[in-house]
Amino acid sequence: NYFGDLDFDDLAHTWEHSVEVQVPFLQSIYGASLKILPIAMAIQEPEPSIDLGKSIALASEKLRRDVLVIASSDMSHYLPEGEAIRRDRAAIDAILNMDVHSLFRIIRELDVSMCGPGPVSVAISFAKLKGVSKGELVRYSTSAETSGDKSFVVGYASVVFKL
Q1: pLDDT of residue 3
Q2: What is the pLDDT of residue 1?
Q3: Which residues touch 1 (CB under 8 Å, ≥6 apart)?
């Protein structure tokens, strides 16, 4: 078992919808034979996230399989756009610098309501072990781009760690 003391719990996926959102995009790129291992994380802390990234890297090496790690998370929730951008920028900088501990510190200090720092940290940990040293921001926007309402936004960032 490459994943130590992880629990397998179908209930963890009951209300989780990010996998279903990603699958059509992934199948259009990789085909219907794509194999997916969805992982839902209840514990959002640095060390378990780093450990899981290491476990995935180890499993991919031992099994000699190429692995793509995708982490899904919104950024800030329900803030005026300027404040959301300010908070999100600090968190995004930590992500781009691949600094898990800084990310969690910023989330606490700035009260960034990012819903998936754990999965993002798993991706960072995995990418670091594969030799990546910097993330690349593909795009950042807020819900105001679509709704026009800048008083109450959700932030969204797309980041890639190229191997």
Answers
A1: 65
A2: 52
A3: none
Q: Please name the helix (run of DSSP H) or strand (run of DSSP E) that holds residue 23, with its range, or none.
A: helix 18-30
**Cα 30-33-38 angle, rounded to 5 deg:** 85
Mean pLDDT, range 119-127, rounded to an integer: 98
Would the pTM count as exceeding 0.85? yes
Pair of tokens at residue 135: 């993330």
Q: What are the structural domains of the chain?
A: 10-160 (3.40.830.10)
DSSP type of residue 139: E
Structural contact between residues 87 and 93, judged by C-beta atoms closer than 8 angstroms: no
- CB–CB of 113/133 below 8 Å? no
> 10 pLDDT exceeds 80?
no
- CB burial readout 126-152, b (16+ within 10 A) else e: bbbbbebeebeeeeeebbbeeeeeeee
Query: 163 to each of 14, 52, 130, 135, how far by Cα in Å?
Result: 32, 18, 7, 10
Given a cut of 80, whether residue 4 has pLDDT beyond it is no
